[in-house]
Amino acid sequence: MADARGLVDRLAAEHALPVEKYEELVRSFSPALAAYAAERAVAARREVYGDEVFVRGLIEVSSHCRNDCRYCGLRRSNRSAERYRLAPEEVLSCCDTGYDLGFRTFVLQGGEDPALTDAVVCDMVSRIKAAHPDCVVTLSLGERSRASYQALRDAGADRYLLRHETADAAHYARLHPPELTLERRLACLRDLREIGYQVGCGFMVGSPGQTSATLAEDLRLVEELRPEMCGIGPFVPHHATPFAEEPAGSVELTCYLLSLLRLIDQRLLLPATTALATLDPRGRERGMLAGANVAMPNLSPMDVREKYELYDNKAHAGSEAAEGLAELRRRMESVGCRVVVGRGDARRR
Ligand code: 5AD
């Protein structure tokens, strides 16, 4: 424990560690060590962001997906999933609603839906930017060609979220069908970065086959890639996937990893994710207490929310929903944070 605390201190000072030290930190996880790391992480976040928490309105534009990821309820072999796709007008109207609520970032997220062609997405992005020039558009639409990422960027998209899911190639292969590779995922992240997006990677905590060694690689990847954002949340089983019987990831370990990520990069945008809020009614608060600084409430139309079922019991009511912003504000205040209206860019070095 004393040794592990020393490693936390070293990480807080140097913002980098050899991979075997990350592994040691992960293996040494205990509630007491996590509390120590959280205290340092919150101090680090305060130095850069004060008490500010950024919110993004999440719009789930399509639940169609051509991929067959073993963990995800939207996988193509899940015949029981009800599929939907929002019309551009619906997406715009979500943004209008969100704007009035105080959102200045909209995240368009969807499965890899072949109907979301460059023309369709570019049109959506440019219409949102025309209607709300003071807003940021973030896309989260999976793997696309470099030319496609460039076209979307040219149409006005500012940020792109593409979780790497795990930085270990063998583990990646266990979670995904053979046609998806870690190599390709990382190439996409590099392309996005080079094109000039603010980039977000991320991973699930407690996914089947994950070990302290694979988590150490995830931490190492964030240290090397230096993304603007990193989204992490516990794995939650979905009944119609091959991982239906697998246990969910741990809220405590997720929070500990949030703290370590905050110490790797004080400026990182770190969401307290919906998966965290799904497993724990105080998940958002606990995320902030561990060093997170972003919340992404759902702005999708009410009638589609339950169809975007990545995992079982996905939260979409209360302060999860954008309409619950007042409740979210109260919850954040209860942990010493303040929701601000604004673009919520990462503070530059
Ligand atoms: N549990 C937790 N997170 C999941 N995601 C997909 N399926 C699950 C699941 N069963 C996450 C993935 C993906 C993001 C949109 O949702 O990390 O990148």
Query: Sheet with the most strands?
Result: 6 strands, parallel
CATH superfamily, by name, is: Aldolase class I
CATH architecture: Alpha-Beta Barrel
The helix fraction, in percent, is 40-55%
> Which compounds are bound in this model?
5'-deoxyadenosine
Strands of the widest sheet, in order across it, are 2-3-4-5-6-7
The averaged pLDDT comes out at 96
Distance from first to last alpha carbon: 32 Å
Radius of gyration: 19 Å
Classified by CATH, the class is Alpha Beta
Structural class: alpha/beta
- Give the beta-strand count: 9
The total of helices stands at 14
CATH T-level topology: TIM Barrel
Listing every helix as H and every strand as E from the N terminus to the C terminus, the arrangement reads: HHHEEHEHEHEHHEHEHHHEHHE
The number of domains is: 1
Can you put this structure into words, describing what you see?
This protein is of the alpha/beta class. 44% of the residues lie in helices and 12% in strands. It is built from 14 helices and 9 strands. The chain has a 6-stranded parallel β-sheet with strand order 2-3-4-5-6-7. A 3-stranded parallel β-sheet has the order 8-1-9, covered by helices on one side. Helix 10 packs parallel to helix 12 (283-290). The two termini are 32 Å apart. Bound molecules: 5'-deoxyadenosine (5AD). 5'-deoxyadenosine (5AD) binds at residues 71-72, 163, 165, 204, 233, 235-236, 238, 275, 310-311.
Q: SSE layout and pairings?
A:
Blueprint: H1 2-14, H2 19-27, H3 31-49, E1 52-55, E2 57-62, H4 88-101, E3 105-110, H5 118-131, E4 136-140, H6 146-154, E5 159-161, H7 169-175, H8 182-195, E6 198-205, H9 212-225, E7 229-234, H10 251-264, H11 274-279, H12 283-290, E8 294-295, H13 302-305, H14 325-333, E9 338-340
Parallel strand pairs: 1-8, 1-9, 2-3, 3-4, 4-5, 5-6, 6-7
